[in-house]
Amino acid sequence: MQAALANAGRKPATVLDYQALLAEPTLLAEYLAAYPDVFIKLESPGENPQLEAALIAHGWQLAGGAGMPPAPVQHGELAWRRYWFCGFAALLHSLEEATAGMRPNWVNPPAEVLAMGDKLACRARLALAGIAQPEGLGETELQGFDDLVARSRARGIDRVFVKARYGSSAAGVVACRFHRDGRLQLESATRLLDGRLVNCLTPQRLSDVKAARALIDALCGEAAYAERWLPKPRAGDCGQFDVRLVMLCGEPRQRLARISKGALTNLHLGNRRAEVAQLLGDGPIRQLEQTGRQVAQALAPARLMGIDMIVGKNRVDVVEVNAFGDLLLGMTHDGRLTHQDQAERFGWAA
Predict the structure, then answer these.
(1) Which H or E run includes 108?
(2) Which of 6, 38, 123, 323 is the least buried, fewest Cβ under 10 Å from its Cβ?
(3) 133, 149 contact by CB (below 8 A)
(4) DSSP state, residue 278
């Protein structure tokens, strides 16, 4: 972002650290008092162990602080997600309260960042807008492996995705295939190691029911939901693909296809990327863009989001919306990268 601003001849963005804001939310209000016209972009908390620990501790305290404090999270571990989201939500709400009456220019307001961060709540918001998405196995959290099996059988669905409610980047995502004879197959980049959920760069496959039960039960302890596993279109002999589309101020911008031979298409897992126009014709691309506009409208007044979509024969399904999904390295639209777009549109941001 800073490089894009410099190349555009703009002032550098002022960075306010989340940990500093957690301790003193009025720092943002003080900055806005001096610079009331700046845009404020809430970035991803990222892989910051100290901040993660602070948010988890804050969420635990807000939840009543019962029992022992949460143990430190190890590198790559998926743990204490309910507390983490509670702490992050409280931080963003405190920024809203501190700037109330100042009419801040949010790129994405706190409420919409949180709406996209709570994947189950985001599904409900898109459903209210009539936007196509994979059928949910109920609109409540899963209670465990037995609950997943019961919901799948009740709907006659044998291929499902289990997803972490507060996850991202394939963390806590499991592709499940159930067979009538009781066999099953799971694929996930999250493993259960010595009782801990750990995210790995190499997806594993499971067919052992006991191991599958343990993994799903552990994920449900961190909050998870399930939806139908939709087939993805083929990219020739290279595998199957979905599309990440960046929306800026209600309009479709950069996009890429993510190609995988497995169920998970996330690029950090070693999957391939391609230009969308190489795989889809003009008609499907127009449908993809129109779906993006509908999602942006449903999540207004948010101005920036990354949307993951599956393009079918007669419809486009939204599988995830990410408030921090604008990092598409090297992908341009109208000659501009995502951050060049933002530098042009927002000038400089806090």
Answers:
(1) none
(2) 6
(3) no
(4) G
- Tokens representing 229? 């596993």
291 neighbors 311 (Cβ within 8 angstroms): no
Q: What share of the chain is helix, strand, coil (3-state, %, to 5)?
A: 35, 25, 40
- Residue 319's closest CA among 250, 233, 244? 244
What does the pLDDT look like over 309-328, one tens digit per residue?
A: 999 988 999 999 999 999 99
Type of residue at 15: V
Q: What is the DSSP string of 316-332?
A: EEEEEEETT----TT--
Domain 232-346 in this protein, CATH class? alpha beta
Q: Report yes or no: 228 and 137 within 8 Å, Cβ to Cβ.
A: yes
Q: Residue 148: name the closest of 137, 135, 163, 159 by CA.
A: 137
Which letter does DSSP use for residue 156 in this model? T
The whole-angstrom separation of Cα 5 and Cα 26 is 26
For the chain, residues with pLDDT lower than 50 are none
Domain ranges of the chain: 2-115, 145-228, 232-346
Give which of 194, 189, 39, 203 is closest to 107, Cα–Cα: 39
CB neighbourhood size of 314 (10 A): 5
pLDDT in tens, 85-134: 999 999 999 999 999 999 999 999 999 999 999 999 999 999 999 999 99
Q: Which amino acid is at 288?
A: L
